[in-house]
Design a protein that fits this description.
The longest helix has 22 residues, at 23-44. The chain has 19 helices and 15 strands. β11 and β12 (393-398) form a beta hairpin. The chain is α/β, with parallel strands linked by helices. The chain has helices spanning 2-20, 23-44, 53-62, 115-128, 136-140, 143-155, 167-178, 193-202, 214-230, 232-237, 257-267, 289-292, 322-326, 328-331, 333-337, 343-358, 361-376, 404-420, 452-469; strands at 85-86, 92-95, 98-102, 160-164, 184-188, 205-209, 240-245, 270-274, 302-306, 316-320, 383-386, 393-398, 423-424, 426-427, 442-445. Strands 4-10-9-8-7-5-6 form a seven-stranded mixed β-sheet, sandwiched between helices. A four-stranded mixed β-sheet has the order 1-2-3-13. α9 (214-230) runs parallel beside α11 (257-267).
């Protein structure tokens, strides 16, 4: 009885749907219906192809899978470095069986002379094993990770720190954790590749300004301010970020932090500062560029740095206020999804911080050596030195060669010949996908343990080799 009464109502509803709907709706529904019918018939007929068993076997026999990795040119520059390093890396490094003075790696403070770091790391292995075997939020956090974060925050005089297991992923994860599609990022065109990848991942609008050119930066900020006045509703929802490095890895030059802070306040920007090179190298206590230039560290919204250079461990960290840093524990992809630092290397970083606090003289010693290298290396015949006098990273450029490929070949030859003569230096390498590929150079790193004789001998080797090749 119920079915009989409901049937007229159902047909009435169907009639209304079919004959009172707009024409385009009916057309769309019929098209979808025909498509479904066609797919069903096509599948039942096997696509119109009825293969015999012999044909099937022939297809299987001739099938060739695509390689997992595309073929690579054997002459690719990345495959040309065949140098083999044997033994520990310190003031000296053993390259291809040759003992070389090390001006190639980033162990600026020479912490290898402190055996207590190695001893503490070995003791840590006995307690925790070798690896953490999980991300920080999934059973990868042990007490030394929490201790390191607490120590870093205390050392930098800020509220909180978050530690990553890989230096590259630190700033590359921190930027997209805050910057989103509707935001605008103003960045120096010489920022390192990790920052560039972080900017790409954020999907924000990015405006690059000329390297350390504050006039160009302010010009671009003024242009954005004019655009904001034309669309105030959109401007009210747009956040603006400013990204720079304390000392630029790609140039060795120091950022004009005081001017950046002034522009931050004037145009209401959020300032992110990467101190990968400057942390543990400049400032009276190794706190970085804010300490060196006497800038209130709270004027910088977020500071990131590597633990793989001055600290000579692995990983990186971000420090700032609790409100800002805590956000990364749920939004920093490198923090959430990467296995945490091995406890032994976390302990090594803690031991390095102990030395930072107990022996601040090491920073003054490093600065003295950096200035001596800067003074001596300005007199090459065929090479030109660039970089701040206090920077532990300096670059030597060819004076009379502008062609990119030719300069790469010459610089690699210089580096190879220097190694044969007992000096380890490297020709800086850059990926072709970088936004503004830097001019090719020899990258020189300074070690606190270098003596006046070491610097003089290094100068003589580079001068002799560069004059004979360039």
């Amino acid at each position: 009885m119920l079915q009989a009464e409901s049937s007229p109502y159902i047909f009435s509803v169907l009639y209304d749907i079919i004959f009172q709907a707009p024409a385009y709706v009916i057309f769309l529904e019929l098209s979808l219906l025909l498509l479904v019918i066609w797919i069903i018939i096509h599948k039942q007929s096997n696509g119109g192809k009825n293969l015999t068993q012999q044909q099937k076997e022939e297809i299987i026999k001739n099938w060739v899978s695509e390689p997992l990795v595309a073929e690579i040119d054997e002459n690719h520059p990345a495959l040309q470095n065949n140098h083999i390093i044997d033994g520990p890396i310190g003031k000296y490094i053993n390259v291809d069986g040759i003992k070389c003075l090390n001006m190639a790696t980033h162990n600026y403070l020479g912490l290898e002379e402190y055996p207590m770091i190695k001893e503490n790391a070995i003791n840590c292995i006995h307690k925790y094993g070798v690896g953490s075997c999980g991300p920080r939020g999934f059973y990868g956090t042990v007490d030394v990770h929490l201790e390191l974060e607490e120590r870093l925050a205390k050392f930098m005089n800020l509220e909180e720190a978050v530690v990553y297991s890989y230096a590259f992923s630190t700033v590359a994860s921190a930027i997209p954790a805050y910057c989103k599609r509707t935001d605008i990022i103003f960045a120096d065109e010489c920022v390192n590749f990790a920052i560039q990848k972080g900017i790409d991942a954020s999907r924000s609008k990015v405006v690059y300004f000329k390297h350390n050119d504050m006039r160009d930066l302010e010009k671009k900020l003024q242009e954005q301010a004019k655009a904001d006045k034309k669309n105030p509703k959109k401007a009210a929802k747009t956040r603006r970020f400013l990204i720079a490095e304390g000392i630029y890895m790609n140039t060795g030059e120091m950022c004009p932090l005081r001017e950046l802070v002034e522009l931050r306040a004037k145009y209401k920007l959020r300032l992110f500062l990467d101190e990968t090179v400057s942390f543990g190298t400049i400032g009276k206590s190794g706190h970085g560029i804010t300490e060196l230039l006497c800038v209130d560290i709270k004027e910088v919204d977020l500071i990131s740095a590597s633990l793989e250079n001055a600290v000579e461990s692995i990983g990186g960290f971000c420090v700032g206020s609790h409100f800002i840093v805590e956000h990364q524990r749920l939004s920093g992809l490198g923090y959430c999804f990467s296995a945490s630092q091995p406890p032994l290397l976390t302990q090594a970083a803690i031991s390095a911080l102990d030395i930072f606090e107990q022996e601040p003289r090491i920073f003054e010693q490093l600065n003295d050596v950096a200035e001596k290298v800067d003074e001596q290396f300005r007199y090459f015949t065929k090479l030109e030195l660039k970089g701040h006098p206090l920077s532990p990273v300096k670059h030597l450029y060819l004076k009379y060669v502008d062609d990119l490929e030719e300069s790469e070949k010459i610089l690699r030859k210089i580096a190879d010949e220097c190694m044969k003569k007992g000096l380890a230096v490297v020709a800086a390498e850059y990926l072709p996908i970088e936004k503004f590929p830097p001019k090719r150079s020899l990258r020189i790193t300074v070690n606190r343990l270098l003596t006046a004789d070491d610097i003089s001998n290094a100068y003589k080797i580079i001068e002799e080799v560069s004059k004979s090749i360039a």
